[in-house]
Amino acid sequence: MPDSAPTSTGPLQGVRILDMATVLAAPFAATLCGDLGAEVTKLELPDGSDTLRHMPPVMGEHALYWKVTNRGKRGISLDVRKPEGRELFLKMLPRYDVLVENFRTGTLDRWGLDLATLHAHNPSLIVLRVTGFGQTGPYANRPGFARIFEAMSGFAHLTGEAGRSPQHMNHPLGDVLTGVFGAFSIAAAVAGQARDADGVRRGCEIDLAATEALFRTLEPLAVEYQMMGVVRERTGARATYSALSDIFGTQDGQWLTIVGTGGSAFRRIFDAMGRSDLLEDPRFATTATRLKHSGEINGLVTDWCRSHTLAELQQRLTQFAVPHSKVHSIVDTLADPQIQARHAVIQLADPELGAIPAPCVVPRFSNHRAPTPRSGPGVGEHNEDVYGELGLDRAALAALRERGVI
After folding, report:
1. Which residue from 36, 108, 166, 244 has the least number of CB within 10 angstroms?
2. Residue 254 within any structural domain of the chain
3. pTM for the complete prediction?
4. Of 35, 175, 271, 350, catalytic
């Protein structure tokens, strides 16, 4: 690859996004685009009632979740349900390339902001619509939350111990995975417009259903069932598609994940255990036989781990190049030498707290140097800047504020 001087912008530089979505999934999509150089304006109601402003972690009056999830965005307040708010919104719309929304299907239509109206004011507008179940189908009007997506997609069915209740993790995974699909969709739509042979940037609607996004990540389950009659079940931390792959307790009360997918990686586990003799056992000779006898393999490794400390196991597994890791809490993750060496935690400038930690921009581009974004904006923090671009002076903004429009 030829050398090129890093720039201070990202590959989505020049793309302008208006994010009028609430809570997490769709705003996270816009944030990921902002991390890669897009200019994102966050639109919220003047009363600051977005759930994310009140969702833990909240420290006193500081909405930490909001600050990290909406990082790098300019913030404006606007009630598009009011006639003056709708008018101002449509006046502003031509300045943006992408609109991100996540209201229940049909909501924008009821507010007079249907797709035809949006495209009448900006024919090239990309509209990302994030809902639980999509714009069509019998569930289109249902409300959606991360745990609903996880349950309906089949994700929760796989999570937990065999014979016990399905589990949700203590984080809205369904929302953040949907956000990744949303950012990917925006980038794909922008790239598609750039390739139009006639140079005309045509608008489009992106119908992103969160349940489908999660289902998409469970790629082999449908073919496994419909072609083989197998319904994959919960097995705790043990994988049924690979032997060995599980979490093991150590002598000193720690937890260690060990992965031996593939013949060579599996053989190194027995070498590390000092049990190379077991490699001659026909039960452990092939992937198929190892899967058949995975319980016996897990038992051998379980006993080995229980008789050694975490440090002893890590030393031995590293010596034999066996993939492994301590199961980290956030304390361990932040202290990990790899995380520190890569500067995977950055400090967001914050006008109230000085600086707050957050995950770094992902991924890294050789020809772009990602700037460190600032934290998420206060309610209407950039009203004067954004509405000033439309020609509204302070007196006009004060009048709109008095009437509850901004």
Report:
1. 166
2. yes
3. 0.94
4. 175
